[in-house]
Every structure is written in structure tokens, then in C-alpha cells.
Write a structure and sequence with these properties.
Layout lengths: L1 E3 L11 H6 L2 E2 H13 L6 E7 L5 E2 L3 H17 L5 E12 L2 E11 L6 H6 L16 H11 L3 E7 L3 E9 L3
Helix pairs in contact: 2-3, 3-5
Length: 172
């Protein structure tokens, strides 16, 4: 099942002056983040990173992009209680009807989500974890993407895994 997320109203650490003047090299940012995240993985979980050879820049603060992707990576890791694989990638997508954008994807081959969970995944405070242990990650990722003119998409199938995509406009 695929779902393009709507809008939430959670604050993210962005101000418009910073967004206008900042741009981030997505590939370099993801490679750096992956190196930090690997230290958090158990030996039975692998992380693969694939980025576009071109320099892809998006208009945001590096820290905000790293937090959003880290939240997706943490969700992927938690979906792999018996081990598995996480893939992190960044590509440039464009078509005649869509302005060029960067697509950042986090895919896991974990437990996946049933349809009802996927529908509620970006609702603030909704969680499948114990009380007090979740409910903010995906809403914050969604708010970050929206705040810079982007969006997120989630696809998931129980026992197959989850694919989370952040679509962000290319800085220009």
C-alpha cells in the first residue's frame, strides 16, 4: 500500500531566513549520517547507501535534514528485530509534469505495517510502541518535508518491509 501524507502542525527547527540562504549537498549529508548511524546497528543489520553521482542540493538546514533521515533510519532499524537490511538512497527525479526534486529513500526488509497502521503513521502521538516511546518521528519528518516545499510517501507490506520517501525540491 502506498500513501502520500497530508499536513501536520508540528514545529520543526527552521526559520524562513535560514531556509532561503541554506542549501545542503544531499549525498555528502547522507554519507556522513550513514557513518554515524552504523555505530548504532547490531551486527545482524546492514546499511547500504547509494547516492546520485551528481551534486544534489536542497534548500534547508543540514541539521534538519539529518534529523528527518535519522528518524526514518531509526524506524527501519526498529522494524528489524531479527536482523535484516536497510537501504538509504538519494536520486534526482524529474518528468515533464513535475519539477526536478531529490528523492531520499529509506527501505527495510523488516516486519512492515498493516494498512490501518500505515494510514495513521503520521498522526501525532499515534504509535505501535509502548506509551511514551513513540508517536513523533514520522509526523516530524512530514513537517520537515512540508516546511521546505516537499512531501513524504510511505509504502509498507506486513512481513515484507517498508519504504519511506522524502521528496524535496532542488535548491536553485
Amino acid at each position: 500500500m502506498t500513501r502520500t501524507m497530508g499536513h501536520t502542525k508540528l514545529p520543526v527547527s527552521t526559520d524562513q531566513a535560514t531556509l532561503v540562504s541554506s542549501s545542503v549537498d544531499v549525498s555528502a549529508c547522507l554519507v556522513e549520517l550513514a557513518e554515524m548511524f552504523r555505530a548504532r546497528l547490531t551486527p545482524n543489520v546492514s546499511l547500504e547507501v547509494e547516492t546520485d553521482a551528481r551534486i544534489l542540493r536542497v534548500g534547508c538546514r543540514k541539521e534538519d535534514l539529518q534529523i528527518a533521515v535519522m528518524l526514518l533510519l531509526q524506524n527501519a532499524r526498529e522494524a528489524l528485530p531479527m536482523g535484516g537490511r536497510i537501504s538509504l538512497s538519494a536520486t534526482c527525479s524529474a518528468s515533464p509534469s513535475v519539477k526536478a526534486e531529490v528523492e531520499i529513500s529509506v527501505r527495510d526488509n523488516g516486519i512492515g505495517m498493516p494498512r490501518q497502521t500505515l494510514i495513521q503513521a503520521t498522526v501525532p502521538y499515534f504509535t505501535t510502541k509502548s506509551n511514551g516511546l513513540g508517536g513523533f518521528g514520522l509526523p516530524l519528518v512530514e513537517e520537515f518535508a512540508r516546511s521546505v516545499g516537499g512531501r513524504i510517501q510511505l509504502e509498507s507490506e506486513p512481513t515484507v518491509g517498508t519504504l519511506a520517501r522524502i521528496h524535496l525540491p532542488i535548491a536553485g
